[in-house]
Amino acid sequence: MGVTATTATESYQKPPDTTRQPVKTLDKDAFLQLLVTQLKNQDPTSPQDTNAFVSEMAQLSMLEQLSNLNDEIKQLRSSQEMSEASALIGHQVIVQSDDGEISGQVEKVSLASNVVKVFVNGTGYELAKVTEVK
Asked: Could you give the CA distance from residue 65 to residue 79 in angstroms, rounded to a whole number?
């Protein structure tokens, strides 16, 4: 029995990965949406226990308070870093960069996107890159 050769007319391409990435944490909006969905779909002949509902509302309140506390802590951290960086203006520093160590005087500081930068020799470096102050 003879075998005939065949050739592919098109190459196979793997389809793009469309798998959904799960959310690792629930924010307050997702938690509230879950709670509302639960209420909509509960059995009217056997509604949710009042204590359980109050407990879920307390959890929602705590989630919101923790979220607000986290935001306040981030603002406090940025403010603290800005104060630290401001104290470096006029001082000689050594900064780690991709090109090695840079030495110079801090000219100014800036805060953008919650990142504090010190400017040495006209270039901005993150405050965490400062390794020595003279």
From this structure: 21
Structural domains of the chain, ranges and CATH numbers in brackets: 51-133 (2.30.30.30)
Confidence at residue 3, expressed as pLDDT on a 0 to 100 scale: 63
Task: Please choose, from the candidates 90, 102, 85, 115, the residue with its C-alpha nearest in 3D space to the C-alpha of residue 123.
Answer: 102
49 residue type, one letter = D
80: part of which helix (H) or strand (E)? helix 50-86
pTM of the prediction? 0.55
**Between helices 50-86 and 28-40, what is the axis angle to 10°?**
170
> What is the per-residue pLDDT across 86-101, written as a single tens digit (0 to 9) for each?
999 999 999 999 889 9
Contact 60, 92 (CB under 8 A): no
CA distance 92 to 89: 9
Number of helices and strands in the chain (H, E): 2, 5
Strands 123-126 and 115-120: antiparallel
Give the number of other Cβ atoms within 10 Å of residue 80's Cβ. Answer: 11
Long-range own/partner contacts, residues 54-59 (CB < 8 A, 24 or more apart): 59/31
